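Final paragraph of the annual report: two paired records, presented back to back.
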Amino acid sequence: MNKYQRIVVIVAAVNIAIMLLFPPFLDNPLRRGVFPSFEGFYPILTMLGVKRIHSGLLTLQIMFVVINGLIAWLLLDRPPLKGVLPDFRYMRAISLFLVANLVVLLTFPPFESYPSMVKYEAPYFDGFYFAFGDKRQRNFFIPLLYLEITLVVANTLIVWLLFNSVKRDELFARERILELAQALPPEQFAEVSKTLGYNAIQPAHDQEPHDPHLGTGPDRRRYRDPRYRGPERRKSSDRRLKTRTV
């Protein structure tokens, strides 16, 4: 299990825990012959034993989270090839995942019940149906649809922030390893940079040392930054010479 898969498991577990702590409940109709309908989400400690849990809706919620987590797990299960760490473009993957979830939610939205012809009653949640099927003449159940979209967007933003934090830590660790590996021979330095996924350039040994002063730090131009995908315009040790002559 890599770091990204661990994040997916944690986020899915937190979502399932929230769903179990605040499950959907059914109402208690006063009239005889009326089936209970969805009433809302309540804390399980306050409503357990008072109202019945909407087991069908709760099962659909948990299945939706599990399926999303399983798909993300399989997509993130990419072992490195030939000792080189793969470049993970999580921004594009998360964006596609968000679009796919929104398409599913809008294709099978929650619908309201049919209006009663005997006595007026407030519309309630009736079920999920195909948006272009025979139920299209009915209204969407906006509160539940709004809650679904809000949770999907919130989970996407949380996963994006966590992935971004892990990616920054990995890049910082690789840069630190390369800084420590500069004292190695050129062959070993190239092997380390190849393993880390960098196009490293061993600094020339004949360069004159310079005294450290305010504003100087580790030179990042001696190897190729994987975050920059454009062509490299400077070559080998001439990069430092060009900056000095300016």
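The closing record of the year follows.
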Amino acid sequence: MKPEIKNAIIGGIAGTVVMTLMMMFIAPMLTGMPMDIAAMLGGMLGGYTMGMIAHIMMGVVVFPIAYVIAYNFLPGTPIIKGLSFGVVLWIAAVVMVMPMAGARFMMANIGGMMAVMASLMGHLFYGGLLGALAGGGATANTV
């Protein structure tokens, strides 16, 4: 069975908080520069506040709902499903979103391969928390 949306949203909240903190504090140690997704999104959406709202809405609402929809198509246990989903999000970010935000393909303008790896770490933490906290859904008791 699929996880409940409310549990997925709880996982999305936890994952978004952890990923945001990683972007603020861990990524600069790895890449030597800040990795501010809200600022990058804000460049496309009309300012930092709009970028942060988009980042939070995607992480807390949109991606958890997409995870619930994709749940049965993902392999493994809930945590593996979450990690797989995180990898899918990471690929979309590196190949599509970051180039549109001005970071170029494979984040060439914001740290290159180190930024790509930092992004992968963040997306794995996000997906893993999403999968772990969303769980596998309720199962019916049979006698």
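The chain has one domain: 16-134. This concludes the annual technical report; the extension proposal builds directly on these records.
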